[in-house]
Specification:
- This protein is 33% helix and 24% strand.
- It starts with 6 loop residues before the first helix and ends with a strand.
- Helix 2 runs parallel beside helix 6 and helix 7 crosses helix 8.
- By secondary structure, the protein is α/β, with parallel strands linked by helices.
- It contains 8 helices and 11 strands.
- The protein has a 7-stranded mixed β-sheet with strand order 3-2-1-4-5-11-8, sandwiched between helices. A two-stranded antiparallel ribbon has the order 6-7.
- The relative contact order is 0.13.
Length: 294
């Protein structure tokens, strides 16, 4: 004791208050995750537009942003109505328009949508863009679509895949398809160096962190807070099946079309692997799910 104060008890009280404060901040972050993530993505747009990762000048000149993985499951898009969820600044949306589809892209980031509209105008496509959170989209958009498309780094920004699947089903016509390509949940378990398992494979709790730089420009002088969630494969599949979306194909790939991690190894042109894992683990998966006829 120091005087009449029990040091051990005092330390426990301080730890408890610190823990309670941390929980309070976490709760506030989760409640405000849309604002936090909108600010995060708004802060990335300018850097991404200038990055080699997004090759905007080449894109304007006609280069497609679509990869072989998604092209293999998209089929003929002539006159197909496509809803592109979480489209960022619209490169895939515009690429889909160039293939003959009528495309509507949506994104949480108003800065990204502003850039998407400018890019579509420069590229001469009729791609439409809206600012909206995925969950709120049924209150913003009334159309139905032949295809709902979403790809690469999207569902991790959503806390509830049951609600996501409901939105997908809501916007699909009977017989319509979800075309979905995403990084495999296995890779999200690891730290940035891919040396230790840091995160839970399952959707245990939100991941609240601060990022230096961005995947498209790792040395960029930007700092952003973000809130994300891990989603196991079982959660993805069960959420879709529960909305009467029938799984038509599911593929896993031991490579990624993007050099977006801290460590990347290009073993073929346009194909990258995390060196520590080689071809032994999945990096990406794709699926097609079809809405049953009503």
């Amino acid at each position: 004791k120091v005087g009449s104060i029990n040091c051990s008890s005092l330390q426990e009280t301080v730890k408890c208050k610190h823990f309670q404060k941390k929980l309070s901040l976490q709760k506030k972050s989760v409640e405000n995750y849309l604002d936090i993530n909108r600010n995060s993505w708004n802060g990335k747009v300018e850097t991404h537009l200038k990055s080699d990762f997004y090759f905007v000048n080449e894109f304007i000149a006609g280069r497609s942003s679509l990869n072989t993985i998604e092209l293999e499951i998209l089929d003929n898009l002539k006159d197909q109505k496509i809803l592109h969820l979480q489209c960022h600044f619209g490169q895939d949306s515009i690429s889909l328009s160039r293939l003959g589809a009528k495309v509507t892209g949506i994104d949480l980031s108003d800065k990204a949508i502003e850039a998407a509209k400018d890019l579509a105008k420069i590229c001469g496509t009729d791609t439409e863009f809206l600012v909206s959170d995925v969950y709120d989209l049924p209150n913003v958009l009334e159309e139905k679509f032949d295809i709902v498309y979403t790809s690469y780094g999207t569902i991790g920004w959503l806390p509830d895949l049951k609600k996501w699947a409901k939105v997908v089903s809501h916007f699909l016509k009977p017989g319509g398809k979800l075309i979905f390509v995403e990084f495999h949940p296995f890779v999200w378990m690891y730290d940035d160096d891919f040396t230790n398992v840091k995160y839970n494979y399952f959707n245990e709790k939100p991941i609240i962190e601060t990022e230096e730089g961005t995947y498209a420009e790792q040395t960029a002088e930007i700092t952003q807070d973000y809130v994300m969630w891990n989603h196991p494969t079982s959660e993805v599949l069960s959420s879709l099946l529960n909305e009467n979306l029938q799984l038509k194909s599911f593929q896993e790939y031991s490579w990624s079309p993007y050099a977006c991690f801290l460590h990347n190894e290009e073993f073929e042109k346009g194909k990258f692997r995390i060196p520590q894992f080689g071809d032994k683990v999945p990096h990406v998966f794709s699926l097609v799910a079809e809405k049953s006829n009503e």
